[in-house]
Amino acid sequence: MLLTIKDSSIDNPLGQILRLPCKFIKGESDILPMIISTIAEELKRTSRNVLPVVVISTGEDKYKAVLNAHILTAARQAKLDFVWCIIVNDDMEKQLRVEKGEIVRINLKIATEKELISFFEFIKTQEKGFSKIEPLLTARAIVEYRQVNNLQDLNFLTKLKCGIGKTKLPLLMPFTILDPKAN
To answer: 73 and 128, same structural domain?
Structure first.
């Protein structure tokens, strides 16, 4: 069973699977044309998609595909008028990105040194400007600092001489949590 939330601002049932007209949905896929063609052939055969397109409402009868846009592209190629969709809001889209592994977050107050090392190895490969960070040294510096200091914000990182200056803090903020209770 899917989670259903009523969004009163646009009166759309969030989390439900709904059949929406393709013409109401914006979005294209950058998946290989051969894959799109294969999916389109299957959609022609079955006349419906099994994997729903995840969309955000952008207005009355207007949606934007945020996940599985390749299904929408294939449905258009297959000349289907409708696709099965799940409507999400901004918070749900963020959760989807976390669940897909696009967003990684770590709680700097409770993460183990090993988790911190892994996190900074990830950041080093994903974010420009972090290529010179030493994950082991940064993780150790954080663990040592938090043993005697209460972490209130990310500014402490600039004092650790670990390669993270003030200009890098805004880049790091979306990936970090400073809550002693959060997992």
So the answer is: no
